[in-house]
Each structure stands twice: as structure tokens, then as C-alpha cells.
Amino acid sequence: DGVPDGVLSTFMAARERMAAARTWVALTLAGEGAAPDDAVDREALRLHPPAFGILRQLTAPRELGPGARLPAGAATAIPIALVQRDPRWHGPDAEAFRADRPEPPPHAYFPFGGGARRRIGEPLARAELGTILPLLPKLRPLGPQPERAVLRGTILVPRRSVVVAQGG
Q: What letter does residue 167 receive in the DSSP assignment?
């Protein structure tokens, strides 16, 4: 009487953004003992965004600060995980999980990318989080917290594929 095979295989296939998002949220639920809801999902995806970064090519020169200028055509990357843990936007406890954290400004929270190239699957991913996770039995982490993120392709996934089990 465990987790249905279809659900388990969905979590194990964490090479794809939506599966990675589900896995990170499930791990957070298990580790924090939290119940799934929008605030928990948002905070889990803030700490563990499935997308590695936003890659863009500048169409015009860009001043980054004193003495730092990038020319038009330069390739740039915005590391989502670093921006979403920046204390300027998320407070001095930005590394901590807090489901009651105020909603961040759009420029400081974009786990599925941003702008014109924001992942079109984001609404589906959020709908899946709201549908699948509440149906799962109580989860427990399989190892010590926190799970280390690794880069696979262009997404951040837990180092181990299966990171939660049915609790007791």
C-alpha cells in the first residue's frame, strides 16, 4: 500500500523542470513537516528553483557598476538560485525555509525563468503541485537535510533521484 508506480516514476524523472520542481517541493514538505499549499510551494521553489539560470544575449551595452560595462552581444547569465536567496529581497534569513515569508518582488522570484522566455509550462507545473502533492501520503526524507543540488543539463535537481519515502 505504497506510492503508486506512476507517481513514483514522475518523481524519479527529475531531469525535466516540472519533475524537478515536484521533487524539490516534496523534499521540502518532508523535511519541514509542512502541508502542501501555495506558500509552501512558493518558498520551496524559491530555495530550490528547477531552472539553473536565465541566459540572454545583450542587445545594447549594459553598465553593471563602476568600471564594469558589458558590450552589446555579450552573453549573460542570471543565476536564479542566487537571486532568490539574496537577503536584499528575502531578508536576513534568506537561506531559511519560511512559508510565511512575504511574497517577493517579481525581479527576485522567478523559479521557472522570466520575461518573454518564461517557461510556458509553469502554470501546468503549479497545477500539478497543487493536485499531486496533497494526494501523497505523509512523506519523510531519505537522508540528512539539506539535499545537495546538482546541475543536470540546464536544471538543478537533488543529487539523489529519490529523496523521500512514505512516512509512518
A: -
Strand ranges, E, within 3-146: 53-57, 62-65, 68-70, 75-79, 139-141
- Residue 153 corresponds to which cell in the numbers above? 543539463
pLDDT tens-digit map of 97-129: 999 999 888 889 988 777 665 666 677 777 777
Q: Tens of pLDDT along 2-22?
A: 555 555 554 444 347 777 777
Helix axes 38-47, 17-32, angle to 10 degrees: 110
Q: Tell me what percent of the residues of the chain surpass a pLDDT of 90.
A: 24
- Closest by CA to 84, choosing from 58, 115, 55, 54, is 54
**Cβ atoms of 90 and 83 closer than 8 Å:** no
- Ramachandran category for residue 161: left, alpha or beta (phi over 0 → left; psi -120 to 50 → alpha): alpha
How far lies 69's CA from each of 65, 66, 96, 134, in Å?
Answer: 7, 8, 34, 48
